[in-house]
Each structure stands twice: as C-alpha cells, then as structure tokens.
Design goal:
This protein has about 150 residues and is an alpha/beta fold. Helix content is about 20%, strand content about 25%.
Length: about 150
C-alpha cells in the first residue's frame, strides 16, 4: 500500500533509518499526495466538475470536457502517484479530434477522498464506479477507456 502524505513530511531515501524501512514494509510507503496542478481551462477547454460516490468513504473528483455534437466520449484514467491533471495534454488532443472527455482522480489523488493507493486493487472499483456514472449521466454511442500505468 502507498500512503499519500503532505510533501513536507516525505523523507529523502538517503535519510532512511532501519526503523523507517521496517515501517515502510509494515505500513506501506509514504509519498507526496498527487495534486491537480492544472485545470482544463489552462488548455482552453471548458469543463464541469463531477463527484462520484464509490462507497461510504470514497468520493472521486472528475472533470467532464464536453465536445458539442459529439457522439463519442473517452474516459481517461491517470497513472500511479499522478492526478487527472497529468492527462490534460492528451485530453486536449482527443477533444480536438471530436471526442468529449471525462477524467476522474483515483482515490487518494487530486481532489478525491482518502490518502492511499492500492496500486490498482481497489482502484478497479473506482473504474467501475466511473463507468457506471458516465453511463447513467451521459448518452454517447461510443465510449472508449484510456489509461496510463495503473490507470491502464
């Protein structure tokens, strides 16, 4: 398990003690929490924010970037220790090609809840919840899933 923490609490690997290594093995690694550093408007893309309730504890943050008159949507999933803003360049390319785009943050990333990643195990539930949400709230003839790393 990976525990996301504030960047100022992450130790440099050269400074790990034996106790730090034992804690990492038992409790998981501590890495800086992935943050959304850019917004779709930074790429000249209009968007709306959405929140998806996966279960009682997990609420995912997502951006919907509609393309007028499009019948197709790409649902994009970011990689490990990243956030949805890491996909904005690709989102802009897909949008220019005529696709609407939906980009969620996995649990523990960006503006979603929790502070850990299971590197794909529980994130599979996030993918299912996002796909259900898109099917319930949007009508597109063609839906494509696109992902990097853990999101693939």
């Amino acid at each position: 398990m990976i525990n996301y923490v504030s960047p100022d609490t992450v130790k440099n690997e050269e400074n790990y003690t034996k106790l730090d290594i034992i804690k990492m093995i038992v409790f998981g690694e501590r890495v800086a929490r992935p943050r959304d550093t850019e917004r779709p408007t930074d790429f000249n893309l209009e968007y709306s924010e959405h929140f998806i309730q996966v279960d009682q504890e997990v609420k995912l943050s997502a951006w919907y970037i509609p393309r007028l008159n499009s019948e197709k949507i790409i649902i994009m999933f970011h990689g490990y220790s990243l956030s949805k803003s890491s996909l904005l360049l690709e989102a802009q390319v897909f949008w220019k090609k005529g696709y609407s785009v939906f980009i969620p943050d996995f649990r523990g990333s960006g503006e979603s809840t929790l502070s850990f990643s299971t590197m794909g195990y529980l994130e599979a539930d996030d993918v299912n919840a996002v796909c259900r949400y898109v099917n319930q709230h949007f009508r597109y003839k063609e839906k494509i899933l696109f992902g990097h790393s853990m999101g693939g």
